[in-house]
Design a protein that fits this description.
eight-stranded mixed beta sheet, 422 residues, BirA Bifunctional Protein, domain 2, Rossmann fold
């Protein structure tokens, strides 16, 4: 039996990897301009980090984590999201001593055991940004604006920003009580999952996408009507900074996101190209998470987006991808009798900073030229007996088909000049 790829994963093949390079480079370009520094955390962490950080009653923790025991019986989990690991690193490495306000970004694979569907995989890739150490509403707005600029740099259009405030521990507790009172006599109409959420984490009911629950959710009290004065002021200021820069947004009063650590600002960026699961990124403020993981009370805000979902939307919107850059040079040899000279010359070309390759299977010169054309080579160096007798090789322009003889001693200078003029 052939071994196949695990369900919910995908191979990123050579013909597609340039898309990933393009997306990742644009992300880095924008975020570095905004003052963010890249951080890389382990792919797996102690399970407790995610249970405490994300919330033990969330779908991620209860149903979606890939958790296993190491040889000493310790529970480890493949990271399902990036914020908790970043906060763990922030605390463990005492980064606040150097950076009172720390701006970080990350790129990498995440893992969730959920039902695969359009844009959703069990191994997927995210980029995210985190600002730790300030409660300023300006930073909430900046995180939203930086995220939008990434999408614009990638050529995405027709995106919508949804924002809400989920309040703080104080006012959210009041709202949750009102929410439970409203749902109490309607609980029989909820799906099985939401019936369980009612007692454990009723706010998660608002995140349900099932039709039976949506009919009830649309009539629930809205959290913004129960915000304390501080949360009201914060939300108003976030919106005012977006208004100042002309960022279009829609207030979605039942937007809560799927993670328990959010406080105050919550937002999503959505695309109509993805169907019901239309969010291509989202985030919000998490002022209690640092303390929850053992640090001093420290405000923070962040954002994360799935790269696979971004690429799907880019393809659906017919974003023009950069063309693959072919090799600079291909070294071809006549009848395979000049292998040693060709191999030595190949390394010399590479040492000069040019990309180069050759045929290793003793094909005919005609087959080598077809291969050079197939892999989109700019110039081919042909090593033949007659040319070698004169200490020369033939240099062929693969686009114009023009060719000329060049002295081997002058070849590197000639190749560099040709490639720089392409």
């Amino acid at each position: 039996m052939n071994i196949r790829i695990p369900k919910g994963t995908q191979d990123i093949l050579p013909e597609d990897i340039s898309k990933w390079y393009f997306v990742e480079n644009k992300i880095r370009e924008v975020l570095i301009k905004y003052g963010y520094q890249e951080i890389r955390t382990p792919i797996f962490e102690h399970t407790e980090l995610f249970v405490r950080g994300i919330g033990e009653s969330t779908d991620i923790v209860t149903k979606e984590m890939f958790t296993f025991l190491d040889r000493k019986g310790r529970s480890l989990t493949l990271r399902p999201e990036g914020t908790a690991p970043v906060v763990r690193s922030y605390l463990e490495n005492k980064m606040s001593r150097v950076y009172p306000v720390l701006k970080l970004f990350y790129l990498g694979p995440m893992f969730r055991c959920e039902k695969p569907q359009a844009g959703r995989f069990r191994q997927f890739h995210q980029f995210g940004i985190e600002v730790i150490g300030t409660k300023s509403p300006e930073v909430d707005a900046e995180v939203i604006i930086a995220s939008i600029e990434v999408y614009k740099k990638l050529g995405l259009k027709n995106l919508e920003v949804l924002i809400n405030s989920v309040g703080c521990k104080k006012c959210r507790a009041i709202y949750i009580q009102k929410l439970k009172e409203f749902i109490k006599d309607k609980i029989d109409f909820l799906c099985l999952e939401c019936k369980n959420r009612y007692s454990k984490n009723p706010l998660r009911i608002l995140d349900c996408k099932k039709d039976s629950c949506q009919k009830i959710i649309k009539k629930t009290p809205i959290i913004t009507e129960y915000l304390c004065q501080d949360c009201q002021q914060h939300f108003a200021e976030v919106k005012s900074y977006l208004d100042i820069l002309g960022i279009k947004y829609f207030v979605e009063p039942r937007l809560v996101r799927g993670l328990d650590y959010y406080t105050k600002t919550a937002f999503e960026i959505i695309s109509g190209e993805l169907g019901a699961q239309n969010a291509i990124g989202g985030g919000g403020r998490y002022d209690d998470l640092v303390e929850e993981l053992g640090g001093d009370p420290t405000p923070a805000v962040g954002f994360a987006a799935g790269i696979e979902r971004m690429i799907i939307v880019m393809n659906q919107q017919n974003v023009e991808w950069p063309k693959n850059r072919g090799l600079d040079i291909f070294v071809a040899k006549v009848k395979g009798i000049n292998k040693d000279i060709a191999f030595k010359l190949l390394q010399k070309v590479r040492s000069a900073g040019l990309s180069a390759d050759m045929d290793y299977s003793s094909k005919s010169l005609k087959s080598q030229m077809r291969l050079a054309h197939k892999i989109d080579v700019k110039y081919t160096v042909i090593i033949g007996e007659e040319e070698l007798a004169k200490n020369m090789v033939t240099l062929r322009n693969m686009k114009t088909k023009e060719q000329k003889e060049v002295k081997i001693d002058n070849l590197i200078d000639e190749l560099t000049l040709c490639i720089n003029n392409v």
